[in-house]
Amino acid sequence: MTRELVRRFVPLPRVVKRASTAVPSTAAFVGVALLTHSPVYATPTSTVRDQAVVHFNEGNEAFSRGDTHEAYKQYQTAWELHPTFDIACNLGRAEAELGKLPQAALHLSYCLEHFSSSPQQDLRDARQRYSDLFDTVRTQVSGLKFVVEPNGAAVFVNGANVGTTPLDHEVFVLPGTQVVELKVEGYQDLKREIPAFAGESRSLELRLERLGPALAPGAAPPAAPAAEADGEMRERGASTSDPGVSTRSIALVSGAVLTAAGAGVGLGFYLQGAKLDDEASVLRDRIQTAGAPDPNPCATASTPECTQLADTLDSRNQAWTISTVGFVSMGVFGLGTLATWLWWPAASTSSPSTSSPSAHVLTIVPVVTGQHWGAGISGTL
Which of 20, 78, 197, 216 could staple 55 via S-S, CB 3.0–4.6 A? Predict the structure, then answer.
């Protein structure tokens, strides 16, 4: 599927023909001539450079006959011997057709960044085609940029070493969860799982914690807080906080909000029930006056006023029932919030004896009956 996408959106021609052909293609000329005369890089020994040219030409021949796998191997060898932009261009295209999208994105990015600045139209057209190919590949991978303290840290992504900081290029990966590891002598190793999405570019700020002084012989290592053991990581524009403090704060705020909501519901429906009770009293007096000889006129005759009185009494009872539930909820959540504030220590002042999950067990049980409501609390301190 990847190969079909690349060919459909970027209809690049076969990039090269044999260097000995009487009329070589433009791509072949770019590949061989620039490889042997590129002034951008430090010139290697002639033997290494000549070997790179041989492998590059063999990759061109393999590509011209449709053997993309062999072309990829030859370009990869040429790149390892003498990395130049023209090798990167052909290597990136071979990787794209083979579905090696992260590697293709890396080499095509290098290709475009160091492409020849010649004004020749053929070269400009070739650069545009490689740019289109890179854009297609880029939508299918995610880019990670690393800003690390200190420098000199080895960066591993999914177990593969991608370089040492500072990294001057993006690390391209397939979408999904990525395991990032940083290692440098004298610092705690850092390991994080990073979500990656297709087409995005994410900048990561990571800081490693320095190891403490060497321990005396036979001394036990001191227990280090989790944040110091794991290091710190911040994405650009985001901040982090201690998980314990954050969870406690959320519990306190949520409890306070639910307590206030319970109080509001209880009070609101209580007032509504009181209003309906007053209306029922007025209706009752009116009915009693109209049927003075009968002490209970609604029991012997059904009138619109009696129906209205019955509906009003039902609404009053329903409002007071909801009010009772609201007040019970207020009490339960209020007591729970108070217990959280008293017995859930903040992370900055906690110790193993006070932060243990089993140090305090508190159970709050709401009690609602026909005439009473409340809450029962049981547990140990």
Answer: 78
